[in-house]
């Protein structure tokens, strides 16, 4: 960290500033995929226990975000899209962010263990550790494969939800994990292709900086090709079905077409249309994950309806 870690906030932060520390947009994706993992599991969960579990997972995700912002305050200050975050903008002191992150981490893990089971709590604890330490403190600044390996942190929530319900892991939960894990690289590399200068200014070894944009385009198509069989394969498990397979077929064709278009482009093409294709693929990637997990929810609802209700 830079000297920013030793500075104090010039004035008292608002509740909105503290909430921003928790990365609410990232938290919303975590909550959604964890909820799907819980609801599609074959073991019913009491609504109150389910609510507490999802609350703990959300708080744990927020704790990870606060710890990430505390550690990355120096590079956040150098990037246009992150310079306005609470710490680099001076609205929250680094020490406050660290305290919030550690406190919420302990609260979330302990409460989840007491409310559900120790496996779920252990997965949550490891997820927080992975994101805050392995990814933020090590991988992000050490290797252009930071997104590939670090993507595991964002892939654990559906496995967490499944563990809350069943007390274990399964092929289904591992494939939900793999779906997010394999989706993460092309999702973020599409973003990196049109915010390239931000990562360069911050000294983050993003693939676009270390290997160039042509190599990044090749990586996007390769990882998308690897993603497709994982997404389709999930449809042939106990939580899949015709609705999911139909959605997966459409979304993967759409995403693969976008990745192919990126692969065929040159720097001149990107400059000419101001990264229109890359921006479009990034937007598709956001719909991609929501559509797959939404389809899993529909399949679960259909199965429960056939059995007489949830």
Which terms summarize this structure?
16 helices, Tetracycline Repressor, domain 2, 76% helix, 2 domains, single chain, mainly alpha, flat, disordered N terminus, 310 residues
Short characterization:
The chain has 310 residues and is an all-alpha fold.
How much beta, percentage-wise?
under 5%
The CATH architecture designation of the largest domain is Orthogonal Bundle
The CATH topology assignment of the largest domain is: Tetracycline Repressor, domain 2
CATH class of the largest domain reads Mainly Alpha
How would you characterize the largest beta sheet?
A: none
Q: Count every beta strand, where a strand is a DSSP E run of 2 or more residues.
A: 0
Our count of helices gives: 16
The H/E string reads: HHHHHHHHHHHHHHHH
Q: What oligomeric state is this? A: single chain
> For the residues shown, what is the average pLDDT?
90
Distance between the termini: 49 Å
Helix fraction bin? over 70%
Low-confidence stretches: 1-9
Report Rg. Answer: 20 Å
- How many domains, as an integer? 2
The CATH superfamily of the largest domain bears the name: UbiA prenyltransferase
Helix vs. strand class: mainly alpha
Keywords: Cell membrane, Heme biosynthesis, Membrane, Transferase, Transmembrane, Transmembrane helix
Protein name: Protoheme IX farnesyltransferase
Subunit structure: Interacts with CtaA.
Pathway: Porphyrin-containing compound metabolism; heme O biosynthesis; heme O from protoheme: step 1/1
């Amino acid at each position: 960290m830079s000297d920013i870690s030793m500075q104090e906030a010039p004035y008292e932060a608002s509740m909105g500033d503290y909430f921003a520390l928790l990365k609410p947009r990232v938290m919303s994706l975590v909550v959604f995929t964890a909820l799907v993992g819980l609801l599609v599991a074959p073991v019913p969960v009491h609504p109150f226990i389910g609510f507490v579990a999802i609350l703990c997972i959300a708080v744990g995700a927020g704790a990870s975000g606060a710890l990430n912002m505390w550690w990355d305050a120096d590079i956040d200050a150098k990037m246009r899209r992150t310079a306005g975050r609470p710490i680099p903008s001076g609205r929250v002191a680094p020490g406050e962010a660290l305290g919030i992150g550690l406190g919420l981490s302990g609260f979330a893990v302990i409460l989840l263990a007491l409310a559900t089971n120790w496996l779920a709590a252990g997965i949550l604890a490891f997820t927080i550790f992975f994101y805050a330490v392995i990814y933020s403190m090590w991988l992000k600044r050490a290797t252009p494969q930071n997104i590939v390996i670090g993507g595991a942190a964002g892939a654990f929530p559906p496995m967490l939800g499944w563990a809350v319900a069943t007390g274990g892991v399964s092929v289904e939960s591992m494939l939900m994990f793999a779906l997010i894990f394999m989706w993460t690289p092309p999702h973020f590399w599409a973003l990196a292709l049109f915010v390239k200068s931000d990562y360069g200014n911050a000294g983050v070894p993003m693939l676009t900086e270390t290997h160039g944009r042509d190599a990044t385009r090749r990586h996007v198509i390769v990882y998308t090709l690897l993603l497709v069989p994982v997404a389709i394969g999930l449809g042939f498990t106990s939580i899949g079905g015709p609705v999911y397979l139909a959605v997966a077929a459409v979304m993967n064709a759409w995403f693969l077409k976008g990745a192919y278009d990126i692969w065929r482009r040159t720097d001149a093409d990107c400059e000419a249309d101001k990264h229109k294709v890359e921006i479009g693929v990034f937007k598709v990637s956001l719909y991609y994950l929501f559509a797959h997990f939404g389809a899993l929810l529909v399949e679960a609802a259909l199965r429960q309806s056939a059995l007489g209700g949830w």
